[in-house]
Amino acid sequence: MKIDRYEKIWMWASGAMLCAFFATMAGAAIGSSIGPPSHVQTIDPQKVLSDPLFHQQGTWVDRGGRVHATIVATAFAWLPAQLTLPAATPVTFHMTSIDVLHGFEIVRTNAQATLIPGYVSQFTTQFAPGDYMIVCNEYCGVGHHIMAAKMAAIPRSQWRPTMAAPDVPPAHENGHDSH
Ligand SMILES: [Cu+2]
After folding, report:
1. pTM for this structure?
2. Is the dihedral of CA 21, 26, 32, 35 positive or negative?
3. DSSP single-letter state for residue 52
4. Centroid of ligand 1 to alpha carbon of 158 (angstroms)
5. From ligand 1's centre to the CA of 109, what distance in Å?
6. What is the mean pLDDT of the chain?
7. Using an 8 Å Cβ cutoff, are 78 and 149 in contact?
8. What is the fold, at CATH topology level, of the domain defined by 41-167?
């Protein structure tokens, strides 16, 4: 079989690039132990709704007065569908998926995380007062486009949590993204 010289060059060049890309990924995974984002807390995706942190979804305040939001993603809805948070206050989000991969995004904010079944995603951020939309930004199936929820940030003085603090170890409450 006759292969043109330029085609050969391109084949070798693209082969070398593939090797280089693979080497960087292997280096990141093994050398820098880069894994799923946040604090790498695992969870059995089949037991999320009986987990102490996730069996209820909503907002809560821990013993130190810090605000938290617990959110569960499922095809094709966010639990809860309406989130009200205190404005200008750090809020720690705890999130996971009970089925497939979803992408949590509060539109026009820096609140964004990939939710992988089996892992708890966590981050802390705060919001200016206003109404926001929560969407799924990772294609998750036929109902992906309807997977949305509402979020409102209201003055702290008017805000109330929707649930009592879950019975979880304080390590889950510190809100640090140690990664
Ligand atoms: Cu989706």
Report:
1. 0.76
2. positive
3. T
4. 32
5. 18
6. 90
7. yes
8. Immunoglobulin-like (2.60.40)
